[in-house]
Write a structure and sequence with these properties.
The chain is an all-beta fold. Helices cover about 0% and strands about 35% of the residues. It has a domain of about 70 residues. It binds zinc ion.
């Protein structure tokens, strides 16, 4: 899912998740092509077309960000803005379960 993992010096595992440059929500995409360089459109998880359950319209947040995902050589995915610039990533600590 386009996640990168890095390890800190103390051995903590950090997951880098691409997030929407506009609202910091998650990015959604479907990329069937497995070859390097395969591309597909990406949208924000708050995109109105991605919202299938309307619990309360007054709480509905929508975001019109759109981008591109591109398959890397190693099978992971990079997310870009439509103009090809990179989008921010959020660092999430992965809990070490001691195994
Ligand atoms: Zn967004």
């Amino acid at each position: 899912m386009g996640s990168d993992y890095v390890y800190t010096e103390s051995g903590e595992k950090i997951r880098l998740v691409p997030v929407c440059p506009k609202c910091r929500s998650h990015i959604r995409w479907t990329l069937y092509g497995g070859r390097k360089g395969a591309q597909a459109p990406a949208t924000c998880a708050n995109n109105i077309e991605a919202t299938r359950v309307f619990r309360n319209l007054s709480e509905l947040i929508t975001c019109d960000w759109e981008g591109i995902v591109e398959r890397n050589k190693d099978g992971s995915v990079n997310v870009f803005n439509k103009d090809g610039t990179k989008i921010p990533k959020q660092a999430i600590k992965v809990k070490n379960n001691g195994l």
